Structure formats: C-alpha cells, structure tokens
Amino acid sequence: EIVLTQSPGTLSLSPGERATLSCRASQSVSNNYLVWYQQKPGQAPRLLIFGASRRATGIPDRFSGSGSGTDFTLTISRLEPEDFAVYYCQQYGTSAFTFGPGTKVDIK
Amino acid sequence: QMQLQESGPGLVKPSETLSLTCTVSGASISGNNYDWGWIRQPPGKGLEWIANIYNSGYTYYNPSLKSRVTMSVDTSNNQFSLKLMSVTAADTAVFYCARRNPRVGGFDSWGQGTLVTVSS
User: Which residues of A touch B111 (CB under 8 A)?
Assistant: First the structure.
C-alpha cells in the first residue's frame, strides 16, 4: 500500500499570500495518478487537480499542481477568502486508493 | 446535473451491520465510463477509501476493511450499496458515496455525506 504524507499539517496565511502544500508518497505513484481535493467544513471534498497537474472543470487558475514520482505540490498563487479549507492528496494504484492526512490552510 | 444521495440508518449498534445505499440521479449507473465508491471520514479526521464497484458488479476493497465490507449494485434502481459488518465505535464516521472517473484517477462527484454513529 502506498502511504501519502502531507506537510505542513497546518498552514496559516493571509488572503493574497501564496500557499505551497506538499504531498509525498512512500512509493512512486503510477502514471501520475495523483489527485488533490479541497474540503470545507460540513461539505464533501471537491476535486481540484488530477494527473498531478491538470485542473478539474471549473477550478480557478490560481490552483496549480506539480510533481511526479513520489513528490507532489499543490500551489495556490494568491489565497482568496474561500480558499481557506483542508486539502487532501489521493493516489490510485493497483485497484486501491489512499488519501493523505490533509493540510489545513487557515487564516493568519 | 448528476447527484448522489446517501441513505440509511444514522445509528447502528456495536457488532451489528451498517447498511447504506447511494441513489444516483441525473445519470445512469449502467454507463461504462465510471465506477462508484464509498469513502468515510471519522469526525474531525481524514478521508478513508472503503470500496468501489463497477456496474458489472466487479468490486475492489480497501485491504484493511475487506473482511467486513460488501458492496453491491442495483442498476434497475440506479443505486449501489455498502454493508459493513461487526461495527465498533471506531466505525463512527460520515460516509460519502462518490463517482470515480478513470480519466482522472479520482472521485469527481460526491454525495453530501451521511453521519453514522455506532453506539448502544
């Protein structure tokens, strides 16, 4: 099973600042099947990024993903008030999915 | 617009079986382009994948839960279901049903989630 580790656990930033979130896998993620979700309190997760770097439909271009193999990054170029949330990475491989523990982006 | 809706008891006793159903509207579950899954989230904690199923009935499970989980699909009613046996308080969680899009490798549509509490 591939284990995902996310850092930092919490990121305290102000609106307008840049957020950089890390997701590290215990083994290489095949075909870059690395996905990012955003979750706000009381809501289901929302798909943001797939294939490590491709934005899902309707996702603003301030969200970007990068990385390959075992190291992946989600960047929010300029935080908007609605971006303060928890972000999860998830990988798919060998008929199994695993999620990272999440990074909370909160208001400084 | 496609929607997913979870339904089932909100309270289950320890050692009993948790049963949930996801009803899909606005799209046919019989389509070949997607498979369907369950994910859970204990209060205040992260996400855990439980299982997925294709409309053919082929299933794949989280190895850590496999011995206690069964998924089924009912294409005539556009639903899929989850059974989790021998529950304990550790199974208390919000349970989400979701559609997996193989093109993206993840879940692109989610239900709103339903809280299931395991307690006597």
Answer: 44
Q: Cβ of A35 and B105 within 8 Å?
A: yes
Rounded CA-CA distance A41/B90 in Å is 21
Give the span between the Cα atoms of B44 and B54, in whole angstroms. Answer: 30
How far are the Cα atoms of A58, A85, B30, B60, B74 from residue A102, in angstroms, in the given order?
22, 10, 33, 24, 33
- Residue numbers in B near A51 (CB within 8 A): 104-105
Q: Measured between beta carbons, which residues in chain A are less than 8 angstroms from residue B105?
A: 31, 33-35, 50-51, 91-92
Tell whether the model's pLDDT for residue A45 goes beyond 80: yes
pLDDT, tens digit (0-9, with 9 covering 90-100), for B70-112: 999 999 999 999 999 999 999 999 999 999 998 888 999 999 9
Over residues B5-16, the mean pLDDT reads 97
Assign A39 a pLDDT band (cuts: 50, 70, 90): very high
Contact B63 A88 (CB under 8 A): no
Cβ atoms of A87 and A37 within 8 Å: the answer is: yes
